[in-house]
Amino acid sequence: MSFDADVIIVGGGLAGLSAAITAVKEGLSVIVIERGEYSGAKNVSGGRMYIHALQQLIPDALERAPLERPITKETFVFYCSDDKKLTLSFEEKGKKNSYSVLRAKFDQWLAKEAESLGVLISYSTLLTGARREGNGIVIETNRGELRAPLVIEADGVTAPLSRFLGLRRMEPKYYMLGVKEVLNIKPEGDEGEAVTIVGLTKGYKGGVFTYTNKDTISFGFTLKVDSLYNSDKPSHQLIEEIREKLGLKGEILEYSAHLIPYFGYENLPKLYDANIMVTGDAAGLLYEDGFVIRGMDMAIGSGMIAGKAAKKIKDLGDYTKTDIYYEMLKESFVLKDLENAWRSFKVLEADEKIYSSYPDFICSALSKLFSVDSNGRQRPLKVLLSSAKEKGVSVTEALKDIMEMVL
Amino acid sequence: MNVVAGFKVVLDDTLIKVVNGQLDFNVPLKVSNYDKNAVEEAVELKEKYGGTAIGVTVGIDDRKSIKDMLAMGLDEVRVVKGNYFDALSTAEAIIEATKDVKTDLYIFAEQTTDGNTSSVPAMLASLLDLPLLSYVKSLRIDGRKVIAERSLGLNSETLEAELPAVISVTGEINKPRVPTVRQVLEASKKPIKYIEFSSQPKVKIVELNPYVVNRKRVIIEGNMKEAVDKLITYLKEDGVL
Amino acid sequence: MMVELLKRLGLNKYNVDPKPHIEVDENICIKCKEKFCIRVCPAGTYEALPDGRIVVHYERCLECGAALVACPYGSIKFRFPENGISYRYG
Amino acid sequence: MTRAVVFSEDLNGFKNAASLAYSIANEVYGVGYNDVKYTDKLYLIDRTEEDSIADFISSINANLYVFGNSKKDKIIAAQVAGKRKIGYIPDIISVEVSEGKKVIAERVAYSGLAISKLECELPCVVTVSKSFGEVKERNTQIERVNLKESKIKVIESKKATSSADLANAQIIVSVGRGLGSKDNVALAEELAKILGGAVGGSRPVVTELGWLPEDRQIGLSGIKVRPKLYIALGISGQPQHLVGIKDSKIIVAVNTDKNAPIVDNADYVIIGDAVEFLKTMIERLKAK
Predict the structure, then answer these.
(1) Strands C13-15, D64-67: pairing kind
(2) Which of A1, A191, A283, B119 shows the smallest number of beta carbons within 10 Å?
(3) Do C2 and A241 touch (CB under 8 A)?
(4) Are the Cβ atoms of C13 and B12 closer than 8 angstroms?
(5) Are the beta carbons of A80 and A86 closer than 8 angstroms?
(6) Does D238 contact C14 at a Cβ distance shorter than 8 Å?
(7) Mind listing the domains of chain B with CATH numbers?
(8) Are D96 and D171 part of one and the same domain?
(9) CATH architecture of residue range(s) C16-80
């Protein structure tokens, strides 16, 4: 069988382009197929990238990439019942660890970078099927077939390639739905803020976010798909109700939505198979530990590792040896971090209390601690215990959850 | 048979919006509507009669759009760069960019989606003193003659002219091909030539403002007979009935 | 002011495929009481008729992928469209 | 400003062009196939091919060349601009002359999204689609001219037959799912016939229900239309449909749902049943 390239990469987003750039630098011939009319056309992200991986990929990215704002302020807002609200804010001026991004713009830029390095990208090219043939993979598209001994899957959360090859079935419990609006509100100053809002979506597992971009604000929610099953209103109505409650004015510039992988380390899907390496969202590489949610640096990191692994596999001459990729992932921040976050992730994933009764409990306690009347004041611990009882929170369970989260 | 097809890279007009009373031009680029039909026709003629099919684009230089056109089967693309082009200087630029080509047929779309002036093919024909066949919906070559059918509103005409000639086509003329992945990949190897051209535009843009159609939103109530009578009265007042 | 769904969708660029990329199995939908799809889909793609059937407005689709997990009864056949949506912010 | 030349293949266009010419120039020459008396002088020509006419018009020395707005008018206008190597602004909706040296005109661009204000040094070529004031009959001096032979030969000319030429139709009766059934499309056809218009439809009606053939689909995935009257029957107004009808002069919507998006995007709205509307409208128009 004659091959069209050493590696075919399905998907021209962060993972695919990072894999392509790395593989080309390693001297491999690479073809990327992208179903959007440009890279980023089909992407939606909440909007924050931790940039360490990008800087590995493109060392001077900070000067050239179309990043929106450095996130220097982290705000958590807990909405409780009875008009109570708890806000925590942390600011670190000048910090350049993460940036808000808008993916349509960013991915197009990265695609240009890749093309200038010799990566061939075929846009508006939809994967319609895949099969094994001879010692390689045949990629079927709406524009004809391509063959390669090695395929890097970077086709996003729904992982069509894995599904076409029968390597994956999708289960609702492993996915969140993100619904987002870009609002025409120009934030002040040059630095950005990330706001995480909990408690506005009671009865659902998930939260609400806003990020400040250069000239706009990204706003949206991420909710577990199975918790939407029991919703009394459709998701498209929910988002508007939340926007109303937050009082976010400003014209809507874009309305978008995307599924988000929510597997957690121990439930990760199959990350490799003979001739195939799975990266980014397709590999379920989403990290959450209660403080940080990240997927983009995981996508870039896994893409780069797949690109390097491709070279090693080619040199070995045995394209079934994709376990090399998995071993490299385990040695990298990608799987190490995911593994470290697993305990926190499990708590967040399993426990609806995180999103409703815990905030209520804290608000109730704070309300009492900040109130004075003539009935006499109690010790803080007693206040906490009575609030816990009132809100049906078991203190031992809460402590256990906290331990799981932080230890 | 040497064919030159003009195509223009424009802002995607379906995405331009009015935001806070201003036009938001922060939108992706695309190849202007029907320009793909012009390119398709050029490639089909080349495939049928041999020779070359060369693309020319003036103004925005967008690599992706250029590669898309090459993938459709153009042999090469020439990109004219300069500050600002009006219709006349665009026509002059195209002549400059293809002066070394013994062109039999210049093919354009009937209009571009940004300016909608339909004027570049006519100007080019005038500048080169060549016959112009406009709004062509089908076309054949017979020796050194081009025979074309065109629609001008309510009239449909069959025209004939000697080559070389200039043609503008409508969207009906063909169905632009969707290149295969392999053609897309091969397009990366085809030549793209850049030509600098300092134009002397006669027409300058002074201002660009949003054009908002504010509908009247008159709700006509009453039973259907009364409503229809009211509607007919309104429509007559507006001079549309 | 809440902004109607269709107005929000109207902000997006769609290049609608001539053929639907989503199909539902009428026999399954007509018996389905919960209609999870309607609650999950952020684009209002699924609309229930009084008789229980589901109309698919595939041209509204945001290609989020939720259709692949929105129906526990396996009624929805979803593939990505050839053209469809192009986000400008993303 | 001294002299302007006016041309249009149709009378209305000629009058529109003359109205603009007289609002600016002292002396106006006309070029035409028929002896119309709206200009100081008229060159009565004997050929209809664009290049022959353009050749002749460019040989007349003038500061401003004003044309009507038909497809043919615009081709000739652009050819004149090309031959004389002067500026060209088609479809102008407003115009002023600055210091007697340049024209500042407005026109619609970007598929109807924007109005651009343009500046053009005189001499300059423009086309117009509306009147710029009354034109009166004049004591026109007529001169017959034999035009040069054309480079193009018209072998055949016929009237277009398709009643479904939506892109150019002046009146469109458009049907949506709300019409209920395919049988009712006949009523829409009947109304279109009475109005001298064409029938079109929304995407679901064409692609899902098959009530109309593919070439009648209006909207982003079909045809963009710009009639003077667009009657939307039982069409909710999906965004992709609305984009396709934005350039309509007047939009009428008949819909049972007053919250349908089409309601915000129409000039006249009747909240009611589309079939009942059709029957009543047909009856009323026939009675007249």
Answers:
(1) unpaired
(2) A1
(3) yes
(4) yes
(5) yes
(6) no
(7) 2-196 (3.40.50.620)
(8) no
(9) 2-Layer Sandwich (3.30)
B153 pLDDT tier (thresholds 50, 70, 90): low
Q: Which residue is closest to C85 within chain B, CA to CA? A: B15
Same domain? D138 vs D259: no
Q: Which of D28, D259, D251 has its CA nearest to residue D132? A: D28
CB contact B200 to D (< 8 Å)? no
Same domain for D181 and D249, yes or no, is: yes
| C-alpha span between B222 and B216 (Å, rounded) | 18
A205: pLDDT strictly greater than 90? no
Q: How many CA atoms does the CB half-sphere of A203 hold within 13 Å?
A: 8
Query: Is D28 part of a structural domain of the chain?
Result: yes
* CA-angle at A379, arms to A378 and A383, nearest 5°: 75
CA distance B130 to B125: 5
Distance of CA B210 to the CA centre of its chain: 23
Let me know if D144 is exposed, middle or buried by CB neighbors in 10 A (0-12, 13-18, 19+): exposed
| ipTM (interface predicted TM) | 0.80
- Looking at the complex, does the CB of residue B154 fall below 8 Å from at least one CB of chain A? no
Q: Are both A223 and A337 inside the same structural domain?
A: yes
Checking DSSP bridges between strand B145-152 and strand B132-142, what pairing results, if any?
antiparallel
Nearest CB partner across the interface for D220, out of C4, C16, C57: C16
Q: Which domain holds residue A382?
A: 356-406
How confident is residue D163, by pLDDT bands cut at 50, 70 and 90? very low
Give the count of Cβ contacts less than 8 A between chain A and C: 141
**Which domain covers residue D268, as residue numbers?**
166-287
Q: Which residues contact A188 (CB under 8 A, 6 or more apart)?
A: none
The tens digit of pLDDT for each residue in A26-58 reads: 999 999 999 999 999 999 998 899 999 999 999
| Same domain flag for A86 and A183 | yes
Structural domain count of chain D: 2
Cα gap B68→B186, rounded to integer Å: 11
Q: Which chains touch D (3 or more CB pairs under 8 A)?
A: B, C
Contact yes or no for D197/D172 (Cβ under 8 A)? yes
Inter-residue contact A82 to A361 (CB < 8 Å): no
Cβ contacts of C64 on chain A, cutoff 8 Å: 44, 177-178, 256-259
Q: Is residue A199 part of a domain?
A: yes
Q: Residue window 12-41, chain C: list those with CB within 8 Å of chain B.
A: 13
Same domain, A399 and A277: no
Asked whether the beta carbons of A229 and C39 are under 8 A apart, the reply is: yes
Residue A2 lies in a domain: no
The CATH number assigned to the domain holding A340 equals 3.50.50.60
Tally the domains of chain A.
2
Residues of A in contact with C40 (CB under 8 A): 177, 225, 228-229, 234-235
Q: Evaluate whether residue A1 is within a structural domain.
A: no
Give yes or no: residues D106 and D195 share one domain. Answer: no
Specify whether A235 is located in the same domain as A99: yes
**E strands along A191-275, which residues?**
192-198, 206-212, 217-224, 252-261, 272-273
For A26, the 3-state DSSP assignment is: coil
Is B146 within 8 Å of B99 (Cβ atoms)? no
Return left, alpha or beta for A24; rule: phi > 0 is left, psi -120 to 50 is alpha, else beta. Answer: alpha
Domain identity same for A260 and A393: no
What average pLDDT score do residues B155-163 get? Answer: 92
Residues D51 and D132 in one domain: yes
Q: Is the four-CA dihedral A32, A36, A37, A41 of positive or negative sign?
A: negative
Task: Answer whether B28 sits within 8 Å of C11, measured CB to CB.
Answer: no
User: Do the Cβ atoms of A280 and A14 come closer than 8 Å?
Assistant: yes
Q: Give me the pLDDT at residue B15, please.
A: 73
